[in-house]
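Re: the 124-residue chain
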Amino acid sequence: MQGAQDYANNPRAAQEALMRGGDTEESKAKAALIARISGAHNNQLEGLPWFYAALLFAITAGVPHRNIDVVALLYVALRAVYIWLYITGTAKWKGISRSLCFFAMVGSCMYLMCHAAANAMPPS
C-alpha cells in the first residue's frame, strides 16, 4: 500500500517509473502505451486554446447558437476519435486518419472564426 500512496502523492515520478519499465516485452509495451497516452494528453492541451478562442469569438460576434453547437459537437467528436487513433494507432491508416481528424478540427475552429468575423463586420 505504501507504493500506491507514493504514486498518489507524486504522480510524475510514478509515470516516469512506469515509462522506464523493465526489460520484459510487457514492460516495454506498457511504456510505449503510456508514452502515447501522454502524447495524446499534451496534444489535447495544445489544441484546446484554439477551440476556446473560436467559441469565444463566435459567441461574442453573435453567430447563431445552433451553428456554434453543431461545430462544437463536431469538434468534440473528432477530438475523441483523434485521441483513440493517437493512443491505439501504429498502423499507417490510423496515422492518416488521425491527420484527417486533426485538419477537420482545425477547419471547424477556422469556420467559427471566419463566421464570427463575417458576423462582426458592419453591413456595407
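The CA atoms of residues 71 and 111 lie 8 Å apart.
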